[in-house]
Amino acid sequence: MKYTPLQISMLIICCMLCFTSCSSDSVYEPEAGRGVEMSFDVASESRATTTAINEFSVYGDMKSQAGINAPIVIFNKTSVVNRDGVWCYDGTQYWFPKHEHSFVAVSPSSALEPEASPQYHDTKLTFDYSMPTFSGKEMQETQDRSNILDIVAATHRRLYNEGDYVNTIFLRFGHLLSMINFAPKLDDKSIKSDDYIQFHKIEISGLKTKVKITVAPAPRTGSSQTDDRMIEFTGYEGDDNLTITFNGTKTVHNNEQIKLFANEDALLLLPQLFEDSSEAIVRFTYSFKDDPENLLQGSFSLIGQEWKPGTAYIYNFTVDKLGLNLGTATIKPWDSQNIPDIEWKIE
Fold it and tell me: How confident is the model at residue 322 (pLDDT cuts 50, 70, 90)?
């Protein structure tokens, strides 16, 4: 059978339409102007010691619930910036129904510079983090934070279904470092009520300074979404010493307890576990009112202690003429009022 040019053209067009229809069935692609666009917002900002979050970098992927294909990356260190109260990123991304969407965000973005070797794979973000070293540097009154990145991270995982119209991803950021403080109390019935001690120096040895951090959204475990995150610290390096000298400002009167650092000046240190082989200690140098020239020292071991990310620790202890006495450590989430105690050992 012979075909006219018009019939041949119609057959070609039909074939093209058929091919396009088949290929579009493999992945859901919303029509321009009809898909639900993704947007970001920051929920319950938790910046106890730094300025509010005004930018972050986000990684994200999506995985079809219809098959076993690997996740498809849709955000790859994408910069998100707050402009006049609106969180903006370049381009537009859409929600894909019947897909599980996962996100990891980090602020400040400078924590993910090339030297940090950030890698995003299988819904996990891994990067290197380094604290500045303090060995040989005697600081006055407070910790020098000029080179410390107080990093925060957030995750979100959501199954997006047909008919869902919620577009905003509320990111709940949490700190990745640990906050450490010390609270001595003078308790000595053999001295006068108006007597006091003065702390002159605090030294902490055996601190790790480098680590590889992995952040990932937790599984949904039956719910449609979760903000829970999984954080892992591996590959620790370093053996640093920190020394801070007080110029007569840390005075504790009898029957009084103070914090050596104001809440906003508590030490920012790397989360870490002090194993049995650790030689890490905290040493205090102090003197009594009636003997200011006689400097005394007392220390406690950090063996068995664990500093977890996003957690504040206040080490309580008492002092008398015999030295330092056993105390407890108050442990709480960085911005929480739940305060359990654990014991720690005086040497």
Answer: confident
| DSSP secondary structure code for residue 265 in this structure | G
Dihedral sign (CA 128, 101, 48, 337): negative
- 227-265 pLDDT tens trace: 999 999 999 999 999 999 998 779 999 999 999 999 889
Asked whether 324 and 314 are in contact (CB, 8 A), the reply is no
Q: Reduce the DSSP state of residue 112 to 3 states and report it.
A: helix
Averaged over 281-292, what is the pLDDT? 89
Judge whether 164 and 33 are in contact, CB under 8 Å. no
Q: How far apart are CA 199 and CA 295, in angstroms?
A: 9
Do 111 and 130 touch, CB atoms closer than 8 A? no
Q: Look at residues 33, 159, 156, 22 and name the one whose alpha carbon lies nearest to residue 96.
A: 159
**How far is it, in rounded angstroms, from Cα 126 to Cα 237?**
16
| DSSP string for residues in 8-29 | HHHHHHHHHHHHHHHHHTSS--
Tokens at 154, concatenated: 């957030």
Residue 141 is classified by DSSP as S
Q: What angle do CA 115, 116, 117 make, to 5 degrees?
A: 90
Give the pLDDT confidence score for residue 249 in this predicted structure. 79
Report pLDDT for 116.
96
Instruction: Give me the sign of the Cα torsion angle 129, 134, 136, 137.
Output: positive
Residues near 83 by Cβ (< 8 Å), separated by ≥ 6?
none
CA distances from 72 to 27, 32, 64, 103, 289 (A): 11, 20, 9, 12, 67
Specify the pLDDT at position 274: 94
Q: Distance between CA 209 and CA 100 in Å, rounded?
A: 36
Sequence-distant (6+) residues with CB within 8 A of 318 are 184, 185, 186, 187, 324, 325, 327
Closest CA to 40 of 115, 93, 116, 98: 93
Report, in this order, helix, strand and coil percent for the chain, each rounded to 5. Answer: 10, 50, 40
108 — phi, psi (to 5°)? -75, 155
List the Cα angle 6/8/14 in 5-degree steps. Answer: 105
Q: pTM for this one?
A: 0.82
